[in-house]
Structure formats: C-alpha cells, structure tokens
Specification:
The protein is α/β, with parallel strands linked by helices and about 325 residues long. The chain is built from 6 helices and 17 strands. α4 (about 185-195) runs parallel beside α5 (about 220-235). The chain has helices at about 1-25, 45-60, 130-140, 185-195, 220-235, 250-265, and strands at about 25-30, 35, 65, 75-80, 85, 90, 110-115, 120-125, 145, 150, 155-160, 165-170, 200-205, 235-240, 280, 290, 325-330. It has 2 domains: about 25-160, 2-Layer Sandwich (Chitobiase, domain 2); about 165-330, no CATH class.
C-alpha cells in the first residue's frame, strides 16, 4: 500500500511538469509592446479603449503602454474592427466561414500572430463594443505582474454574446443604500468594470424617490447627466426608468412632467431607444392615438395585426411585447 501511495503522486507530478513546460512554450512577452489602434473604431470609444488598456495595464504592471501609428517595435497590441483590411500597412487577420463569432454583434476575436519576427496580439471587435469586450478579455487572461506583460496562445478566443441585453440598473437615488454615496469617478470605475466583463447597457432611475439623500456628493440632476456621459464613453446604452406616477389627465401635472423629462433628455449626451412621434394623441378613454410608421418598419410590405397573446417566454422581459394603448394603423 505504501508503494502505491508514493507512486501515484510521482506520476501526477510528472504529468503536471510536462503540461506546464508545453504551455510555457506558447507564451509571448508583450512587456515592450506598443498599442496600434484602428481609426475605424468610432470616437469616443476608440479613445476610451486605448485609455482603459493603458490604465489597467499600468495599474497591474507599472508599464505605460504607448500609442503608436507606426509598426516598428518588437511587439504590437492591435485594436481593430472586423471591417478593417489593414492598419498602417499591417494586414488584419481574417478567417473564412459562416457565423464566425467575431462577425456577430458585439463579438470579438483575440489572436496571436507573428510577422517579420515581431509578435502581434490582435484584439478584433465586430463593432466598437466588441473592441471594449476584447480589451476586458485580454486583461483577464494575460499574465500581468510587476514590469511584465505576457500572453499565452492557449488563451486565444473568438466569441460573441448569447443574449442581446446584458445590463444593470443603477438608480442614483436615496434608497440605493450604496452608490448614492459614490462620486462620478466611482461610477466611472464601476461602469468600466461592468463593460470589461461584457455588460452593454445601464439603466438609471432619475426621478423616483426625489428627495436628495444625506450621502449624495453630487446633485441628482448632475449625476443623471454624468452617468449618460460615462455610458457614451464606453459605448454602452443608457436607459432611464421613468414611470408616469402622476395623473396625466391633469394638464398642469402633465405639463410639469413633460418639462421635467425634457430637461433630463436635453442634458444627456446619450439616451438610447427610438421614439415614434404621434400625429394624434387623444388621452381620453377609448380614444385613438395615431403613430405613423416609417418605411423601415414595413420594408417587407407587410403589417401583421393579431389579438392573440404572443408566445415570448424565451425572450428577456424587456424584449417582450407590451400593449398599453389602442393603436390605429393606417397605410
């Protein structure tokens, strides 16, 4: 029994050592790399992706990655989109085939390449968000230690999100009991980390629970706008939850509510979602509202009207159909 006990650990250790040696042969040193970024990544996400990569790497390694427009140093970390053919003379690697993850919305590919003896780590996004998500994946899988950046080829990946909506509600209000005490920089840090882990939207609650809390360091209307600015920097959707909790039949209250909303939206650099403006907006019971549809909603020449409850249990609750009025559709 003792011989068996000694033999089994020795056998296991031998396997681990062999495996480690094989994996280490795939590791490349990026400690002296520079950043090369495509001009096709839209602003301000391009600038944000570069800044985040620089700041997060510096925080972990004390290495300040420099942005370059030339391909001269021994290694490059390249930020690109799937639409890029080349960046400053450097051909962007492409794969052939259908339904590739890096071609789908918000997908990305991380690929280690070599050209003329120089290491190139490609972070290729299907779109702007894909680039941000690729940066997040790199930060999680690279070996980052003091004065050292390395990447193992086994951590190459091509992936895309399963769910189209991946967000968080961060209502800046008194009852939050946590982030109501945050500064703008703390919100930026938190939203940054959500983005790096793949979140694509933030929902705020700008009006509910209106009295300011004792811990708030920033006025509520200012933070509502700042949160929008932060989302815009990272390319995330910014939503607001604004239930109509007053009697809209009261004209004075209705007018005050409209003015309150208008003030918020005017100060938000980003607010996602598309509003269909009505041409008739009667507010009485059993009266019609009319919303003309643009051609893009009927591009196939069809409008289907049904009184059946649609089966949408597979959808996120935000994507499910909701009926709140009687609509008159005219062609």
């Amino acid at each position: 029994m003792k011989k068996m006990f000694l033999f089994i650990p020795a056998f296991c250790i031998a396997i681990l050592l062999i495996g480690t040696e094989s994996a280490s042969g795939q590791i490349v040193d990026l400690s002296k790399a520079e950043i090369l970024a495509s001009s096709k990544i839209n602003s301000p996400v391009r600038e944000t992706a570069i800044r985040v990569l620089q700041e997060e790497v510096a925080q972990r390694t004390s290495i300040n990655l420099q942005l370059t427009s030339k391909w001269e140093k021994a290694a490059i970390i390249a930020l690109a989109t799937i639409k890029d053919i080349e960046i400053n003379g450097l051909a962007v690697p492409k794969r052939t085939g259908e339904n590739l993850p890096e071609t789908k919305a918000e997908g990305f590919r991380i690929y280690l390449d070599k050209s003329n003896g120089k290491e190139i780590l490609w972070l290729i996004g299907a779109d702007d968000r894909g680039v941000v998500f690729a940066v997040g994946q790199f930060l999680r899988t690279a070996e980052l230690s003091r004065n050292k950046i390395s990447f193992n080829k086994i951590n190459e990946i091509a992936t895309s999100p399963v769910y189209s909506i991946r967000g968080h509600q961060l209502g800046y209000r008194n009852t939050a009991n946590s982030w109501d005490a945050w500064t703008v920089s703390q919100f930026d840090k938190y939203i940054r980390e959500l983005a790096l882990f793949g979140s694509n939207c933030i929902e705020n609650i700008p009006f509910q629970d209106s009295p300011p809390g004792p811990n708030m360091k920033v006025p509520r209307d200012e933070m509502n706008s700042k949160m929008s600015e932060i989302c815009n920097q990272y390319g995330l959707d910014y939503w607001v939850w604004t239930p109509a909790d007053v009697d809209l039949a009261d004209q004075a209250k209705f007018k005050a509510e409209v003015e309150k909303h208008a003030g918020l939206y005017k100060n938000c650099p980003r607010l996602d979602g598309e509003r269909i403006e009505p041409t008739i907006y009667n507010k009485g019971l059993e009266e019609f509202k009319e919303f003309p549809l643009s051609q893009k909603y009927v591009s196939d020449g069809r409008i289907e009207v049904s009184f059946d409850q649609p089966e949408e249990s597979q959808l996120n609750w935000r994507q499910q159909s909701k009926v709140c009025d009687s609509w008159l559709l005219k062609k």
